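Notes from the 1:1 (GR / supervisor)

We went over the backlog. Supervisor wanted to see one worked example end to end before approving the batch request, so GR pasted a single chain during the call. The sequence is below; no edits were made to it. Supervisor asked that the structure be written out right there so they could see what the output format looks like.
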Amino acid sequence: MSNSTNDYMNIAFAVDAKYTPHLETLIKSICYHNKCVNFYVLHNDIPKEWFEGIQLKLGKMGYQLFPVHISDDVFKNYKTLAHISSSSSYYRLLIPNLINQERVLYLDADIIVNGSLADFYYSDLEGAPVGVVKDYCAWDNFSFPYLDANISTNYFNSGVLLIDTVKWRENHLVDILLTLAEKFSDKVLFGDQCILNILLRDKAKYYSLNENCQVHYIELIKRKYSDKFVNLSSEPIIIHYSSTQKPWDNKNDSLYYREKYWFFRHLDWTYLLIRPSIDNSNYTNL
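Structure output shown during the call:
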């Protein structure tokens, strides 16, 4: 996918109202490192005043925020991940039918962006309908009886999805996913993540840990080797606070990359509004 200076990246989220502080933190981290972004928020219960306040800030910097309200009736009884209390994660299944763009990057709200997304966003999907990163915590223990291991033993984390929406619409993938969700929602271990894997795990293009650095996996390595620190070969672009431990709670005050979340949580919008250009040289030492 080519990238011109006038192109906007399209980034989507699926959240409920209680996650808006973390979504705002994520949006600030994206703006800190990236220009020219359209933000789409799929939701059921976020007040319009929240959108008005965030759009007032984003609009002054050339970004756009689009609320996409979804009725919860379809998904309200579906099984979700253990640390997700609502069915909002299922909303991402609908993205290609709700956002009329050629490509959309979906991000979970428990994420911080740690650099420019352009290389990832505009990368060649090589004909795949979606770009993903494997779930590093599930990779060595393929315990999914509803996934045919003869087709593929791949299993991806659905917190980061680079979606070719045109291909999804051409192949009616949303309809297929909804049918699978209705059939398997009470059987799957990890909610809509498993639904996405049933259909797409052998069709997806797989990217590296840099594009979805799952903190849960890093914490497992720390415990396995009794290390306080893990040195990655390169700084991840997307930091994903997967699992039940989050940087905004007190369950683990040494959680990997916890400080990055709090940097953006405390970052005042005024800084983003008044800085002359994107210059991250002072951030690299965080």
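Supervisor's comment: The first strand starts at residue 9 and ends at 14.
Batch request approved.
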